Amino acid sequence: MYSISQLARKYIRYYFTAANGKGHGVHSPFVFDFIKFIKNDRQQYESSAPIEQCRKRLLRNSQLIEVQDFGAGSTVIKTKQRRVDAIAASSLKPTKFGQLFYRIVRSYRPATIIELGTSFGISTAYMATANSKAHVYSLEGAPAIAEIAQQNFDLLGIQNIQLIQGDFAHTLPALLSSLDKVDLAYVDGNHRKIPTLDYFTQLLSKSHENSIIIFDDIHWSAEMETAWEIIKAQETVTLSIDLFFIGIVFFKKDFKVKQHFILRF
Fold first, then answer.
1. How many whole angstroms separate alpha carbon 18 and alpha carbon 3?
2. At 131, phi and psi to the nearest 5?
3. CB-based contact 228:218 (threshold 8 Å)
4. Contacts with 204 (C-beta within 8 Å, 6 or more apart), sequence order
5. What is the pLDDT along the chain (265 residues), one digit of tens a residue?
6. Coil/strand/helix, residue 163
7. What domain count does the chain have?
8. Which of 224, 174, 226 lies closest to 202, judged by CA?
9. In principle, which of 12, 69, 88, 110 could form an S-S bond with 184, CB 3.0–4.6 Å?
10. Facing residues of 232 across strands?
């Protein structure tokens, strides 16, 4: 993991070298539309307010819970008590990313969504409410965190999320074996090179031309940057978008030349 100062320097470099994100000079109609109608959409959708109220409650929750951290494979590397508000402050994706996920789902209408790493369910809720007809499968390793996430889904009245608790080494293969396809996946579970590439390979087995895979924290460490470069170079990936804190890959076959965009967000 990079230090805060290293990450800050990387972000500053990204900010001043990334495309300004307004679409000027972008020759891909698909990416131009992504920039204009998804990335830069500033419309306030009504489902955002109750989800953000959940976030506020989590940030005020001083309850101590037992948290299991899973490493590569199926090994539990540590268990410790942590406060809910501390976990929420460090692990929840900022509002603008939750709203971005909402717009991605609202625009592309994926029917089957997998999330690796539920946390407290804020990003999950954004994706699930964007398409109430979608089946959202969210995988979380820590039982106490999964329990709070389910409480949030119940409080929000969201009915299309299936929360699956357990080690990804077991739960992901079992889930994929039961599905015909994966339309959208958000990988936010184990910020290491080998597990990330393993999840990508497994998800590819059920992906198709219109699938989308989002990876969290692609610049979090040298390992994650290496994993991102390997993923971008994969033959079936025809388009990638780097927003610094997340990376998005597409598989559309009508993109004859592989394209990679770094956009300011």
1. 22
2. -150, 95
3. yes
4. 234, 236
5. 899 999 999 999 999 999 876 655 567 889 999 999 999 998 989 999 999 999 999 999 999 999 877 654 333 345 688 999 999 999 999 999 999 999 999 999 999 999 999 999 999 999 999 999 999 999 999 999 999 999 999 999 999 999 999 999 999 999 999 999 999 999 998 889 999 999 999 999 999 999 999 999 999 999 999 999 999 999 999 999 999 999 999 999 998 889 999 999 9
6. strand
7. 1
8. 174
9. 110
10. none
Comparing C-alpha atoms, which of 140, 130, 121 is closest to residue 58? 121
Cross-strand partners of 214:
186, 248
In a domain, 76, yes or no: no
35 lies in some domain: yes
CA neighbours closer than 13 Å in the CB half-sphere of residue 15? 6
Residue 119 maps to a domain: yes
For residues 207 and 182, the answer to whether their CB atoms sit within 8 Å is: yes
Residue 7 is which amino acid?
L
Rounded Cα–Cα distance for residues 217 and 209 (Å): 24
> How many other C-beta atoms are found inside a 10 Å radius of the C-beta of residue 59?
13
Establish if 9 belongs to a structural domain.
yes
> Do 17 and 264 touch, CB atoms closer than 8 A?
no
Q: How many residues does the chain have?
A: 265
Cα separation, 142 vs 158, in Å, equals: 21
Residue 38: CATH number of its domain: 3.40.50.150
